[in-house]
Amino acid sequence: REPPPGAEAYIPQRFPDNRIVSSKVPIFSFIHLDKSAEVILCLIIDTPTSPVTSGLPLLFVITVTAIKQGYEDWLRHKADNAINHCPVHFIQHGKLVRKQSRKLRVGDIVMVKEDEKFPCDLIFLSSSRGDGTCFVTTTSLDGESSQKTYYAVQDTKAFHNEQEIDALHATIECEQPQPDLYKFVGRINVYHDRNEPIARPLGSENLLLRGATLKNTEKIFGVAIYTGMETKMALNYQSKSQKRSAVEKSMNVFLVVYLCILVSKALINTILKYVWQSEPFRDEPWYNQKTEPERKRNLFLQAFTDFLAFMVLFNYIIPVSMYVTVEMQKFLGSYFITWDEEMFDEDTGEGPLVNTSDLNEELGQIEYVFTDKTGTLTENNMEFVECCIEGHVYVPDVICNGQVLHDGTGIDMIDSSPGGSGKEREELFFRALCLCHTVQVKDDDSVDGLKKNDFSRKSCIYISSSPDEVALVEGIQRLGYTYLRLKDNHMEILNRENNIEKFELLEVLSFDSVRRRMSVIVKSSTGDIFLFCKGADSSIFPRVKEGKIDQVRARVERNAVEGLRTLCVAYKKLTAEEYSNVQKLLQSAKLALQDRDKKLAEVYEKIETDFILLGATAVEDRLQEKAADTIEALQKAGIKVWVLTGDKMETAAATCYACKLFRRNTQLLELTTKKIEEQSLHDVLFDLRKTVLRDNGSLTRDTFSGLSTDMQDYGLIIDGAALSLIMKTRQDGSSSNYRDRFLEICRNCSAVLCCRMAPLQKAQIVKLIKLSKEHPITLAIGDGANDVSMILEAHVGIGVIGKEGRQAARNSDYAIPKFKHLKKMLLVHGHFYYVRISELVQYFFYKNVCFIFPQFLYQFFCGFSQQTLYDTAYLTLYNICFTSLPILLYSLMEQHISAETLKREPSLYRDVAKNALLRWRVFIYWTFLGVFDAVVFFFGAYLLLDNTVVTSNGQVITPYNIFFFQLALDTHYWTWINHFVIWGSLLFYIVFSLLWGGIIWPFLNYQRMYYVFMQMLSSGPAWLGIILLITVSLLPDVLKKVLCRQLWPTATERIQNASRHCREHISEFTPLACLKSPRYRSSDCSNSPARRSNSHSKKVMFTQWKGVDYSVLPSVFGYSNKHCRSSAGYHYSGSGLETSI
Fold it and tell me: Domain P-type ATPase A spans what residues (predicted)?
């Protein structure tokens, strides 16, 4: 509605309707720019090849892509229509009316019932609950399953029916639509009886987001504020920046090279054609006289036409269908991750997720891993350990004389219990922890009256988005103080005497990652006003004016060294006048429409001063299962692991030692604010650089394992403040020098810990490494919303499906249930993906060179007349039908080495690092191999076969044969599927050739291949020639493989050779190290289930007694009977090598 007369000028704004459109509008959005080269090459001009022959492969590529994306688009249209047509209840003229969701407009008042989703972004006006609150789950938005509390506007929460709501007269001012789910700035002006309006601030706690679900509330009324594509959910639809893998970049570079080869071949043939025709009678033979217009035609125009004709003739060297095959390989290959049962977590019921399949092979190229600590390396399952109040330590459930004392009433572990003022501080500390939080109490029934006798301390279920807060409230409950609930803006707690204390909640100063603290202002039943604050020690201690600071600080530092998460608690008492001033400051900042966050931060800074320190808490966050094993394996694979966390340095360092990122012999180097205060940043960086280069010289750690014993291991610790100084841009340009020195120090450290990091600083670190001169491939892994920025910044982003919601998993490229699954994802899946797709790319270029180079040679024998060597059907179907399926299946199923070996020997990851299989040396080798095979086939057929027996068109069989046999030669992992596809494709080619040449097809004007194939197959010399030529063409590659394996074997080839030699002599349980050292003895065994498929499987006796596993191995191995723990994950598995238990 328009405001009444006298109000400020009102300019009507155009708002969108409530339709959601997630489908792609551009009709040609499926045509990739990468294929523009092929589009240019397939110009249809007057050439010997028909337009169908030239255009069909490209049409096939575009059609397949269009069908795939068109189908996905149709599904999006279908989903959009279902959402846009669902019914919504809204108020019109005081009555409840139903209409479709798409017809909602900004300003409509909507009623939403329990378990319904909000149809658009709503300002919360009133609720069926008396206190004007409602509970909402935002699982579909950010993945958080916990119920959040939202609050109605103070002046409208009393309106409970349609007539009262319809009589409301108000205007709302708010910011323009923006995608941040947790930020909203607005103001509502409520008009009463045409008097001056009452202004109330609107924040994120008043905004109900589209897609969220109403819970435990009968109904609510809200006014539509953002609709359709302006809702926060729709604004988050916008796709992330496109990430491209190193393989894709190499493909495009190789494509440019082949484009240059194509142009060169066309240019050479055009020049040689006119050189050839310069001789008398060659330009115009007696059987092909030119017409008069042809003689008068411009020479340069004729040469250009010939050049284009040669381009079309040779354009098959460009593997058009490679892009479709690569897309299919990535899409189908991604299912191997989601199907992996070892990466399924039974505790959470979650498995791995693949949000994009474009980066599968990038998992095999990772050089840096940036990981969060809390919830990623640790379980994020907080357990209250102790609290320290003015130097006295309280531990719940203390063991005393062999018995656990549950619900201890504060057991002092240092000296005598406090008395007098100390007792008062103790009670204030417990009250502070019961009041200073955002925890909700889950109530099973909605009974308004709660009697003291009905309450059991054990019956409370606490819900919060922060596990720390739940742990603290539960820990204080075990020490005698229980938080009951928040009702009618009053917080109720149960003290040790089982009396309910009520505190009026006046203000909440919310937690944020910059302040690193939160506060509440409450009023007790006696009228006293308290400000309770809890936060990180670095943000509390500078604001404390009194209290036993030294004792508390010492306890905090001791707990931090042990890896515990610490928080400090402080308070101050406010007079009525002081609170009045505070309220005015807060109200002024909250009503601001511009820079509200900044103004609130300034007000918080003024209010949160002059505290009295009460004490500190310690919460334990256990390390995740196999986190240390995973980090150790990644380091052995040559991957550098950095931990980026917001925790304090001592806590983070203790966790790094526990997870083996730092070792006992690691020398720690500090680049912290404390160091910089003692020396200048320039001097600190100079000293650190001098230290790390003293032993290493000019070498960098990039060529060494992080676990090298030949060099001193260094670990660097840097905090957020120091990083800000390094990244800060100065007028003299010296910051870039700081960055270079910092990077040089980091490169020579085996591990780096970044603590006290803000979310944006995490992304800055990732970007700094990503854009360094080596351009390493980076991976970021985290579980919370604060990790999203670094996940989006890294080449590959992985989200852990943890307890901090699913924001990280939703914004990542891949999601895994636990950190330990990263080991298999990189070392096995990443390794396989990279090897497979690299072979796929090289094979496509190889087979196209092998196929089309004879066409180039043939021009020297036909007077450069652009005569085709192959029949048009074979030109069209070569890439589409004959050769695509075998290489696709090979790239999906090939295992050059077993998965268990890859897990057991992480160093094999280095064999494929830095794009090793797509380097120029390998690419040139494959290209020359294709040229060699083409020359062998062309001249071999020319010299060996008599034209009276086999026509030149009969040569078409040889390039197909060599491709199939070359693929068979390179296959390590044979299954019936490989045999069926490779030999089935060869059989399909033969059958097709028999049908194509053996039948007179009525729709063809002429048949070049009629009876040619049958004639050739009936010739003995032809069969002998084919066998001989295939043998000669395969010989160089076989010799190269044999010589390289014997003289310069890679680690992978050594293991392949060892597996072949030892196949009959070793057990699946034999550790790989014994293959390298005959004296090696191991007590490690595997508890992995064995499979049986051959008659030579070894028998192993495996049993358990008193919690220890024993194995009795055959004496042929030279083992003595030893015991081992079944969790030690060693077993050897070669192709076809299996053991029964």
Answer: 88-149
Q: What gap in Å lies between CA 1133 and CA 771, rounded to an integer? A: 40
What gap in Å lies between CA 1133 and CA 898, rounded to an integer?
Answer: 6
Confidence (pLDDT) at 6: 60
pLDDT in tens, 515-547: 788 999 999 988 899 999 999 888 899 999 888
Asked if residues 440 and 499 have their Cβ atoms less than 8 Å apart, the reply is no
**Rounded to an integer, what distance in angstroms lies between the CA atom of residue 131 and that of residue 152?**
9
Tens digits of residue pLDDT in 113-123: 988 989 999 99
Distance CA 802, CA 816 (A): 9
Residues 6+ apart with CB under 8 A from 592: 185, 599
Q: Report how far apart, in Å, the C-alpha atoms of 340 and of each of 330, 825, 1081 are.
A: 16, 10, 32
Report which DSSP code applies to 156.
T
Catalytic residue (choose from 372, 468, 537, 1084): 372
Quick check: helix, strand or coil at residue 761? helix
- Specify the residue for token string 């806590």: 651
Alpha-carbon distance of 482 to 475, in angstroms, equals 9
What does 576-606 look like in DSSP terms, one character per residue? HHHHHHHHHHHHHHHH-SSSHHHHHHHHHHH
φ/ψ of residue 650, rounded to 5: -65, -45
Which candidate, 435, 605, 582, places its Cα nearest to that of 522?
435
Closest CA to 705 of 901, 902, 907: 907
Distance, in Å, from the CA atom of 882 to the CA atom of 869, rounded to the nearest integer, reads: 18
Question: What are the residues facing 800 on neighbouring strands?
Answer: 816
Strand partners, 222: 110, 124
Please state, as a whole number, how many other Cβ atoms lie within 10 Å of the Cβ of residue 1075: 18
Q: How far apart are CA 199 and CA 633, in angstroms?
A: 60
Residue range 829-845: mean pLDDT, rounded: 92
Query: Strand order of the sheet with strand 133-138?
Result: 144-151, 133-138, 213-215
The rounded distance, in Å, linking the Cα atoms of 877 and 1013 is: 17
Q: Distance between CA atoms of 658 and 625, rounded to whole angstroms?
A: 12
- Does residue 444 have a known ligand-binding role? no
**In angstroms, rounded to a whole number, what is the distance separating the alpha carbons of residues 143 and 773?**
38
User: How far is the C-alpha of 312 from the C-alpha of 635, rounded, in Å?
Assistant: 51
Average pLDDT over residues 646-671: 82
> Do the annotations mark residue 617 as ligand-binding?
no
Confidence of residue 261 (pLDDT cuts 50, 70, 90): very high
Q: Report d(CA 399, CA 905) in Å as an integer.
A: 44
Beta carbons within 8 Å of 250's beta carbon, 6+ residues apart = 841, 915, 918
The C-alpha atoms of residue 462 and residue 473 are separated, in whole angstroms, by: 8
Closest CA to 99 of 80, 82, 115, 86: 86
Task: Say whether 372 counts as a known binding-site residue.
Answer: yes
**What DSSP assignment string belongs to 418-462?**
P-THHHHHHHHHHHHHHHSS--EEE-SS--S---GGG--GGG-EE
565 is in an annotated binding site: yes
Q: Among the ranges 159-168, 209-218, 219-228, 853-862, which has the highest mean pLDDT value?
A: 219-228
Q: What stretch of H or E contains 796?
A: strand 796-800
Q: Can you count the helices (H) and strands (E) in the chain?
A: 37, 38
Residue 949 is classified by DSSP as T
Is 46 a residue of the active site? no
Let me know: does 45 contact 130? Beta carbons within 8 Å.
no
d(CA 993, CA 990): 5
Distance CA 1011, CA 1026 (A): 19
Q: How far apart are CA 630 and CA 858, in angstroms?
A: 57
Residue 970 assigned as binding residue: no
Nearest to 1013 by CA among 990, 986, 987, 988: 990
Model's pTM, two decimal places? 0.70
Please tell me the distance from the alpha carbon of residue 406 to that of residue 400, in angstroms, as a whole number: 11
